[in-house]
């Protein structure tokens, strides 16, 4: 039984784990990137034996840093922090490059992207002028995007340098603006505009973002309800208020440490709370998600592969 905790995609896919970190909703050209990611979900997986070989290489070169033949939670955590940072930096670099030709130089060697430029490229007028649900959704997204842009714009000049652009695309990484992630998540789920997310709204959203398991698993709904009432709805009033949404969307615990222990819990055959080279290779389908980006490029997946660990 898997309980859905992260449900609002940004640049990584939803997490099916005890880690409740929730990335922010997409803006503008991120939709195009998400379409590419969705297409990658149907890729032909690489040969398991090849994955095993590269997992063993990963263990030797990056996980077992003290060379004691084990990967501990601390070693996994350190690797995952670098791994996560690399994912974000790659995402920023690709999108910054996408807009490069339309940027202006604020000063020698420092380029900035103006809001008007980003808006015209990411939200064409013809899309915003559409009638019906598509047009309304586009206009709502534009409003949220502009709000997030202004928050990321630290000097208030209407343009973002690369550092500010990172805060715009990944506000969850910047303590100054990360609160907007909670606000956006609430707005997406709060269909009756009460300012809170009721259990019904919570379930409605999960049904939209979950896969076929919601129909195949007869206990799916009960598991989600149990998680909502046990862990999320702390005051037991049947809805998630601002504080409860923040605790869910931006949990205070260390996400990489939580993920490290999850990896161990799945692969630790002898239950000694650490992983061996053999244990890592014994579950290639599960652990291939932590293989570095270079592996997927070598296999011909130019855009990488979806990573479920974040």
UniProtKB/TrEMBL annotation:
Subunit structure: Interacts with PCSK6 (immature form including the propeptide); probably involved in the maturation and the secretion of PCSK6.
Region (Disordered): 19-43
Protein name per Swiss-Prot or TrEMBL: Reticulocalbin-3
InterPro entries: EF-hand-dom_pair, EF_Hand_1_Ca_BS, EF_hand_dom
Domain EF-hand: 50-86, 140-175, 187-212
Compartments in which it is found: Endoplasmic reticulum lumen
Principal subcellular localization: endoplasmic reticulum
